[in-house]
């Protein structure tokens, strides 16, 4: 508020004190005498007697002048309605509006009182108005009809009483202040309510987002648990199948080796062997889905894997499908099994080929991405950081939601019976999970499908695979044998298979039906057994338990574990760290190469010890 609207009073101590701003009243009347009368009543214009004021202060501590000043007003005069209206507008612009207007009803030649009040309220709807009139062309009902019934309007008849004027002025100015205070309070309340409402809306939005996130997490958990359960079932089935396939494939091979190429039986056995190999491929895909497939991971450039894949995929896609590459210009390195990754990508390409019905475009893309915490909430295996995204996009028929939900389920397929196993995409899912990655699918019916595979990125360059040291030929002992091998397996036919393979290669074989018998055989034939092959899961005593007992009595005996179950058994503690494992179904060459490598390594270590002992003796 401007200083002009404030008053100062002097206290009994002689100090000047600023008082609150005085209320402003505008008098609109064409009679100057009326203005003078109002000033005498409402303003403290008398000079007063300073001696009387001093006496009042000494007697009462204050003077009536101060009391009157505290009740005085700031008056403004206008002699026509148009002038009053202009002054009210200017006061509003200055931020010092009038609280009350005293308006005469007749002010020729301009607006009358009703017209003036109508304009004043347009400029300031809160203005309190006192009609001052000796007679009027309007009755009260007519005034109300013209201006509307308002509690901001009073009538003062001339001649007026000074006390009545003072009371009305005080009441109307007070009412204006209360109106403004009420409006400010309401505005503050509305602002508070609006702020609180916005806060509640934000909280509700956060709760909705949290609820949505919880529902998504629950859905992910259900999907994960469902696939995990199917994976465990698949792993168990694969274990049983691998044992059976080991027998079928081995005896089929034995029969092939014992017959001539032109014999009908020879050809029949080859068909059995081929069917068994296909069954073995299915079990490998089951193990891939259940994330139990052994991997040979190295640092590889995904662009190189795709470049090799293109050569394999083109003949499978056909001439009417255009294969495009959109590879990142720089190396995108991941720690992965290149063979299995290439197979997974090939499965995606074949799935896209079938969706395009032989015609369309297939695009392979790679790009580095950084995953944040929000994105990683999609999959519990994901951790924020650098990843490589591999995209396989097609222009095929797309998938409806009910198919999209089941795309990674094993044995689920939309193809005709006999046209697909339903394990291709399940294997892709399992492989990606085994690499600590994530796969997502976006599909629209009639538009196409995009598979996006995310694998953790590494900064190192791709390493070359370590070359396996060639295994040296072993020499026979005096009895004409390459050594004695203990085979422990609870499956009779599997024991016979291993025995036949090893004996045919020149080894003597000792058999045991469980872990306890294997321990007993080693103790009975102390120093005669060169290698023990132990099945991981056996009754009475597991392979691990047998290994511990054997190591106590014969710590230098090399051991080889064999399993048709989980290729990651070493990670579960079922195989002691550092021991080699061969997985069923194995080929004769695979088993023999593992055996020869272990025995050669054992002979090398023994020779090194002998050399050290000889040097120490000398």
Word description of this protein:
- The protein contains 17 helices and 19 strands.
- It is rod-shaped.
- Helix 4 runs parallel beside helix 5, helix 8 crosses helix 13 and helix 10 runs antiparallel to helix 13.
- The strands form five sheets. Strands 4-3-5-6-7 form a five-stranded parallel beta sheet, sandwiched between helices. Strands 9-11-12-14-13 form a five-stranded mixed beta sheet.
- It has about 625 residues and is α/β, with parallel strands linked by helices.
- Helix 14 links the parallel strand 15 and strand 16.
| Shape call | rod-shaped
The largest sheet is: 5 strands, parallel
Helix content: 40-55%
Mean pLDDT: 79
User: Measured on Cα atoms, how large is the radius of gyration?
Assistant: 50 Å
Low-confidence segments, given as residue ranges, are: 1-5, 45-50, 64-70, 461-474
Span from first to last CA? 113 Å
Outline the secondary-structure elements:
Elements: E1 8-10, E2 16-18, E3 24-28, H1 32-42, H2 50-60, H3 64-70, E4 74-78, H4 81-94, E5 100-104, H5 113-123, E6 128-133, H6 140-147, E7 153-157, H7 162-258, H8 264-289, E8 298-301, H9 302-317, E9 321-326, E10 333-336, H10 338-356, E11 360-371, H11 373-376, E12 385-394, H12 401-404, H13 424-434, E13 438-444, E14 448-456, E15 484-488, H14 492-504, E16 508-512, H15 515-524, E17 531-535, H16 543-553, E18 559-563, E19 581-583, H17 588-617
Parallel strand pairs: 3-4, 3-5, 5-6, 6-7, 9-11, 15-16, 15-17, 17-18, 18-19
Antiparallel strand pairs: 1-2, 8-10, 11-12, 12-14, 13-14
Helix pairs in contact: 4-5, 7-8, 8-13, 9-10, 10-13, 15-16
């Amino acid at each position: 508020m401007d200083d002009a609207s404030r008053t100062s009073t002097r206290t009994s101590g002689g100090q000047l004190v600023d008082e609150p701003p005085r209320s402003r009243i505008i008098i609109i009347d064409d009679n100057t005498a009326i203005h003078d009368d109002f000033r005498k009543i409402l303003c403290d214009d008398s000079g007063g007697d300073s001696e009387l004021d001093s006496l009042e202060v000494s007697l009462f501590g204050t003077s009536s002048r101060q009391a009157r000043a505290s009740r005085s007003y700031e008056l403004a005069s206008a002699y026509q309605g148009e002038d009053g209206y202009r002054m009210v507008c200017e006061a509003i612009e200055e931020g010092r509006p009038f609280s009350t207007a005293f308006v005469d009803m007749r002010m020729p030649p301009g607006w009358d009182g009703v017209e003036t009040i109508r304009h004043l309220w347009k400029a300031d709807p809160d203005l309190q108005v006192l009609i001052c009139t000796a007679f009027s062309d309007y009755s009260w009902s007519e005034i109300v009809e013209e201006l509307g019934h308002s509690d901001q309007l009073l009538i003062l008849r001339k001649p007026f009483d000074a006390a009545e004027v003072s009371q009305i002025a005080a009441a109307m100015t007070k009412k204006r202040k209360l109106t403004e205070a009420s409006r400010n309070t309401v505005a503050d309340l509305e602002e508070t309510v609006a702020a609180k409402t916005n806060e509640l809306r934000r909280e509700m939005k956060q709760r909705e987002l949290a609820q949505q996130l919880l529902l998504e997490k629950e859905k992910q958990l259900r999907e994960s648990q469902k696939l995990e359960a199917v994976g465990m079932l698949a792993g168990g089935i694969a274990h049983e199948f691998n044992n059976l396939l080991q027998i079928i494939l081995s005896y089929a091979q034995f029969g092939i080796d014992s017959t001539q190429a032109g014999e009908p039986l020879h050809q029949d056995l080859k068909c059995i062997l081929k069917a068994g190999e296909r069954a073995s491929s299915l079990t490998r895909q089951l193990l891939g889905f259940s994330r139990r497939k052994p991997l040979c991971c190295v640092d590889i450039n995904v662009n190189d894997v795709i470049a090799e894949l293109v050569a394999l995929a083109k003949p499978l896609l056909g001439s009417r499908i255009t294969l495009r590459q959109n590879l990142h210009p720089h190396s995108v390195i991941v720690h992965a099994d290149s063979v299995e990754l290439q197979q997974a990508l090939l499965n995606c390409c074949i799935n896209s080929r079938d969706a395009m019905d032989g015609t369309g475009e297939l695009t392979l893309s790679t790009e580095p991405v950084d995953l944040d915490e929000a994105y990683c909430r999609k999959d519990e295996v994901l951790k924020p950081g650098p990843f490589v995204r591999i995209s396989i996009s097609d222009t095929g028929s797309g998938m409806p939601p009910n198919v999209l939900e089941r795309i990674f389920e094993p044995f689920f397929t939309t193809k005709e019976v006999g046209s697909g196993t339903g394990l291709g995409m399940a294997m892709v899912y399992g492989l990606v999970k085994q690499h600590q990655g994530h796969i997502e699918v976006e599909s629209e019916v009639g538009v196409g499908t995009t598979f996006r595979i995310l694998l953790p990125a590494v900064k190192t360059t791709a390493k070359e695979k370590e070359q396996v040291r060639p295994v040296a030929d072993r020499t026979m002992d005096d009895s004409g044998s390459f050594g004695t091998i203990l085979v422990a397996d609870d499956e009779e036919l599997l024991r016979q298979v291993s025995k036949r393979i090893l004996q045919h290669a020149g080894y003597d074989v000792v058999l045991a039906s469980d872990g306890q018998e294997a321990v007993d055989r080693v103790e009975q034939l102390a120093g005669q057994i060169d290698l023990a092959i132990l099945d991981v899961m056996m009754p009475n005593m597991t392979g691990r338990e047998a290994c511990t007992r054997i190591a106590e009595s014969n710590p230098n005996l090399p051991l080889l574990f064999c399993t048709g179950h989980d290729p990651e058994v070493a990670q579960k503690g079922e195989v002691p760290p550092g021991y080699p494992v061969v997985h069923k179904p194995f080929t004769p060459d695979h088993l023999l190469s593992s055996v020869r490598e272990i025995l050669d390594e054992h002979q090398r270590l023994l020779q090194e010890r002998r050399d050290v002992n000889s040097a120490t003796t000398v």
